[in-house]
Amino acid sequence: MVKKAFELLFKTEKGLYLVFCALTTGVSLVAFWLCFNAFSLSEDLSTFIKNLAGIVFAYFTNRAYVFKSESQKAERLKEALSFALSRIATLLLELFCLMPLFCDVLKLDANVATVVSSVIVIVLNYVLSKTLVFKKSK
Fold first, then answer.
1. Can you give the three-state secondary structure of 59-79, one letter per residue?
2. How many CB atoms lie within 10 A of CB 123?
3. Cβ distance 26 to 33 under 8 Å?
4. Helix (H) / strand (E) containing 49
5. What's this model's pTM, rounded to 2 decimal places?
6. Domain map of the chain by residue range?
């Protein structure tokens, strides 16, 4: 059972995506904590830096370990920009569509709404990364 779970998490693309998703969350939270608590930056600036740190960490780990991108140097800027734009798009979707829908329209508790919207965003980020950002050349 443990061997099967290990293989699922560390030997499949979707498993690796979830592992690095969890690590990205950790990097984001540490970045926020450092900015807000250790450096006394504002909540807004700390949140911005948290998201930026998460996007940068996720790009490099997704590129190298999850999708194993073989893009050449000239293509990497386009790849990085499309990755960042897709992450910003899902962040905006969560902020302005999903959370208002779940909290204001469907009247879900904010804690439940954020879990549900996070799952949707994780799935969307995977699909966008797989189909738009790190798509394999034919």
1. HHHHHHHHCCCCCCHHHHHHH
2. 11
3. no
4. helix 43-61
5. 0.88
6. 1-68, 72-138
Cβ pair 55, 21 in contact under 8 A? no
- Reply yes or no on whether the pLDDT at 138 is more than 70: no
How many Cβ atoms sit within 10 Å of the Cβ of residue 112?
12
| CB 16 within 8 Å of CB 65 | yes
Residues contacting residue 14 through CB under 8 Å, at least 6 positions apart? 126
Q: What is the pLDDT of residues 52-62, one digit of tens each?
A: 999 999 999 99
H or E segment and range at residue 35: none
Q: Within 10 Å of residue 82's Cβ, how many Cβ atoms?
A: 16
Place of tokens 């073989």: 70
* DSSP at 98: I
Strands, E assignment, the chain:
none
C-beta separation of 82 from 67 below 8 A: no
**Are 59 and 83 spatial neighbours (Cβ–Cβ below 8 Å)?**
yes
